[in-house]
C-alpha cells in the first residue's frame, strides 16, 4: 500500500493483469490507480471463472463490464460487434488502440487515451524478457479475449477508462509474444469497447472486499512498469 501514500502519480504506467494490459496516465491519484487496477483485475477473474472467453466471448465481455459496473463504474457507452478489417495482417493491440483512441476522443476530445494505450503497447516489447512477462505468456496462452485499456484522471478528478477487448485465438508458435501482439489472421473478428467512469462513493464501499478477494493475486499475477 506504499504506492497509495505517495499521493499523485508522476509517471504514465502500464499494468499487465492476467494477460490484459491496463495503461494509467500520469496525474492520477495513487489511490485511483490502485483502485482501477484492482477493479480491472477482479472483473477479469470473475469473467474468466464464469465463461470460456474463447467460446463465449460475448458472455465473457458482458460479464466483465457488468462486474465493473457493480463495483462502481458507470458505463456511458458499451458495444460488442462483428468488425471487419481490410488489412491482411494486423495485431490485436493495434486494433484495440484504434478503438480506444476513437472512444476516448468521443468522450473527452483529443488523443490522450489513444496515445497512452499505444505507448504502453510499444513499451511492452522492451520488457518482454522479464521473467514475469514470460510467466504471464505461459499462463494466458490460450486466452480467447485479449483486453487493452487506458485510464486517466481529469482535472475535475473524474476517473475515465476505455476498454477494448478483441476475440483472438492463441498462435501455435511457442515463442509467440503476449496476446495483445497476436496477429489477427482473418478479416472478421468480434470486438467489445466500453467507456467507464469511476464513482468513488460506490467503490469506497466495496474496496475492502475486492482487495480481500484478490489477496496475494493482486501482486503475484500483476506486472507494472513505467512508460
Kindly describe this structure.
The protein is of the alpha+beta class. The protein has one domain (13-215). 41% of the residues lie in helices and 26% in strands. The chain is built from 7 helices and 9 strands; from the N terminus they run ββααββαααββββααβ. The strands form 2 sheets. A 7-stranded mixed β-sheet has the order 3-8-6-5-2-1-9, sandwiched between helices. A two-stranded antiparallel sheet has the order 4-7. The longest helix has 21 residues, at 30-50. The two termini are 21 Å apart. The model is unreliable at 173-177 (pLDDT under 50).
Summarize this structure as a short list of keywords or feature phrases:
alpha+beta, 41% helix, two-stranded antiparallel sheet, seven-stranded mixed β-sheet
Task: Describe the SSE topology.
Blueprint: E1 13-17, E2 20-24, H1 30-50, H2 57-70, E3 73-84, E4 90-91, H3 92-108, H4 112-124, H5 131-139, E5 145-153, E6 159-167, E7 183-184, E8 188-198, H6 200-214, H7 217-220, E9 222-226
Parallel strand pairs: 2-5
Antiparallel strand pairs: 1-2, 1-9, 3-8, 4-7, 5-6, 6-8
Helix pairs in contact: 1-2, 1-6, 3-4
Amino acid at each position: 500500500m506504499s504506492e497509495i501514500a505517495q499521493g499523485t502519480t508522476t509517471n504514465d504506467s502500464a499494468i499487465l493483469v492476467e494477460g490484459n494490459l491496463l495503461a494509467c496516465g500520469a496525474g492520477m491519484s495513487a489511490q485511483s490507480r490502485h483502485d482501477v487496477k484492482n477493479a480491472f483485475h477482479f472483473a477479469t477473474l470473475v469473467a474468466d471463472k464464469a465463461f470460456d472467453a474463447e467460446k463465449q466471448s460475448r458472455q465473457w465481455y458482458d460479464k466483465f463490464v457488468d462486474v465493473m459496473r457493480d463495483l462502481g463504474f458507470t458505463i456511458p457507452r458499451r458495444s460488442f460487434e462483428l468488425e471487419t478489417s481490410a488489412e491482411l495482417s494486423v495485431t490485436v493491440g493495434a486494433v484495440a488502440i484504434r478503438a480506444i483512441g476513437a472512444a476516448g476522443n468521443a468522450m473527452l476530445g483529443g488523443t490522450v487515451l489513444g496515445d497512452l494505450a499505444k505507448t504502453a503497447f510499444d513499451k511492452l516489447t522492451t520488457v518482454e524478457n522479464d521473467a514475469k512477462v514470460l510467466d504471464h505468456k505461459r499462463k494466458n496462452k490460450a486466452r480467447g479475449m485479449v483486453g487493452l485499456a487506458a485510464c486517466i484522471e481529469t482535472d475535475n478528478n473524474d476517473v475515465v477508462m476505455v476498454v477494448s477487448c478483441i476475440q483472438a485465438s492463441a498462435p501455435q508458435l511457442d515463442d509467440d509474444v503476449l496476446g495483445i501482439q497476436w496477429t489477427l489472421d482473418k478479416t472478421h473478428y468480434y470486438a467489445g469497447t466500453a467507456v467507464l467512469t469511476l464513482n468513488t462513493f460506490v467503490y469506497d464501499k466495496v474496496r475492502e472486499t475486492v482487495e480481500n478477494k484478490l489477496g496475494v493475486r493482486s501482486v503475484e499475477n500483476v506486472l507494472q512498469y513505467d512508460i
